[in-house]
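Researcher: Quick test of sequence recovery. Tokens follow.
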């Protein structure tokens, strides 16, 4: 049999099998697609983060595209600062606000995850999140704000890898330097300079609490504007810090 005839017979057999097993074919295609999505995850970039500071994140690129689509100028302000220069009060305030079990979990807070699901099902909407600091960092660096299931699976895979590759101190240092604190404002140093006119290393306890209070929605709630939300949230953070002897 000639090679061309052999190829033709193979393709005919393949098409016949696909027509006879349409559902299984779809399942196999989806599985192959998912595998390819995961094998191309930026595990190498995670390893580089041991010593290299990221100059840009996926969220920064997303925010720039949003601004361009709305006809706005995008200006990014970021000042890198080592974790050793960040006040203890700022570190404690952020952890209490965003991820109370950060130092002890392996990337996931399963209790918060369960509580989040139960509350969201009860209220019929996404009323409560359960992302840890590590998960938030992964989204910021490599993924997007999309809520599709595949993005969430990627987030979990990368979160698992980040926790096994980087130290908790390095994860926290990266987080504090890349998260958004207002339109085009990234990192605690840039936020401190903008809102309080000074370097983050000399922030007061109350200022640290105010910065931590707006992390969930830094575009809606500004650190330098008095609102009931900011007053209530920052005081709650201060009370929890005091209750834990921090």
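Model:
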């Amino acid at each position: 049999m000639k090679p061309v005839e052999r190829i033709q017979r193979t393709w005919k057999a393949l098409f016949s099998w696909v027509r006879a097993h349409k559902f299984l074919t779809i399942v196999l295609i989806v599985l192959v697609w998912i595998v390819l999505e995961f094998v191309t995850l930026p595990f190498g970039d995670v390893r580089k983060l041991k010593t290299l500071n990221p100059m840009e994140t996926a969220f920064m690129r997303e925010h720039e595209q949003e601004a361009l689509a709305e006809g706005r100028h995008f200006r990014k302000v970021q000042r890198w600062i080592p974790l050793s220069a960040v006040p203890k009060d700022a570190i404690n305030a952020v952890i209490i606000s965003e991820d109370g079990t950060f130092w002890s979990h392996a990337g996931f807070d399963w209790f918060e995850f369960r509580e989040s699901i139960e509350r969201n099902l009860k209220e019929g909407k996404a009323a409560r999140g359960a992302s840890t600091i590590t998960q938030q960092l992964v989204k910021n660096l490599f993924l997007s704000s999309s809520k599709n299931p595949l993005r969430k699976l990627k987030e979990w895979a990368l979160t698992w890898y980040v926790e096994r590759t980087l130290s908790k101190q390095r994860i926290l240092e990266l987080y504090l330097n890349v998260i958004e604190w207002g339109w085009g404002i990234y990192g605690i140093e840039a936020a401190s300079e903008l809102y309080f006119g000074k370097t983050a290393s000399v922030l007061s306890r109350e200022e640290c609490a105010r910065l931590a209070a707006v992390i969930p929605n830094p575009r809606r709630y500004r650190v330098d504007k008095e609102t009931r939300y900011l007053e209530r949230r920052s005081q709650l953070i201060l009370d929890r810090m005091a209750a834990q002897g921090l």
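The two ends are 80 Å apart (CA to CA).
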